[in-house]
Specification:
Helix content: 55-70%
Strand content: 5-15%
Largest sheet: 5 strands, mixed
CATH architecture: 3-Layer(aba) Sandwich
Distance between the termini: 48 Å
Strand order of the largest sheet: 1-5-4-2-3
Number of strands: 5
Order of helices and strands: HEEHEHHHHHEEHH
Radius of gyration: 21 Å
CATH topology: Glutaredoxin
């Protein structure tokens, strides 16, 4: 009787463990999509690139942001993270330009989070370079340096690069997380914003695993 009870208990524990084990496996086409042909990864040798496509005007990107911030604090050392302001729509160009100008003067950390907050929480209209420049000035950023960066011809090259990255990723919306140039993860496929990062972690492990 004891042996039968023990066997039953063991079988029950194994059955309960199966959903947990299954949850750690993600399926191509169901939880993420393969990019064909793959994009060129810019990560150094031995690193796995995770690239975020975002737009400041996107409420879904805003919702992902706190989860992404938490993930960045815990990400493995062999992961290289890159933000790319998407230019999937011509109307997104101004916000992409704003991001690259902030990057050019070393003020991304000052501007990035507050820009999302201003648009989606404070409901501020930040649709023109003039409005954005006044906003960044309110954050203590040197507006003359920022304006010079906005008008720098190098920014146009970055915008073209962002457009090409968006096209190569075959993304139709944002936010999208691209792993190793091979896989595209979205909230709709992953099942939510925290789940996006669970799938990213899974794919990073697959890429880092020995052949």
């Amino acid at each position: 009787m004891k042996n039968w009870t023990l066997a039953l208990l063991t079988a029950l524990l194994m059955a309960l463990a199966l959903p947990l084990a299954a949850a750690e496996e993600y399926i191509e086409g169901a939880h993420y999509e393969r990019i064909t042909p793959p994009m060129q990864s810019r990560a150094p040798a031995g690193q796995v690139e995770v690239l975020e496509l975002f737009w400041y005007g996107c409420p879904h990107c805003f919702s992902l942001e706190p989860h992404l911030d938490a993930w960045l604090k815990e990400k493995p050392d062999h992961v290289t993270f890159t933000r790319v302001p998407a230019v999937l729509n011509p109307n997104w160009t101004t916000h992409a330009q704003a991001y690259y100008a902030a990057e050019a003067i070393g003020e991304v950390e000052t501007i990035h989070g507050p820009m999302f907050q201003a648009i989606h929480v404070q409901r501020r209209r930040l649709g023109s370079p003039e409005q954005i420049t006044r906003f960044v000035g309110s954050l203590g950023v040197d507006t003359q340096a920022y304006t010079r960066a906005l008008n720098d011809p190098a920014i146009r090259a970055r915008l073209q690069e962002a457009f090409e990255i968006g096209r190569a990723s075959q993304s139709t919306g944002v936010p999208a997380l691209i792993v190793a140039g091979k896989y595209r993860v979205t909230a709709s496929l992953a099942g939510g914003y925290p789940e996006m990062l669970d799938v990213v972690d899974y794919l990073v492990k697959q890429e880092a695993a020995p052949e």
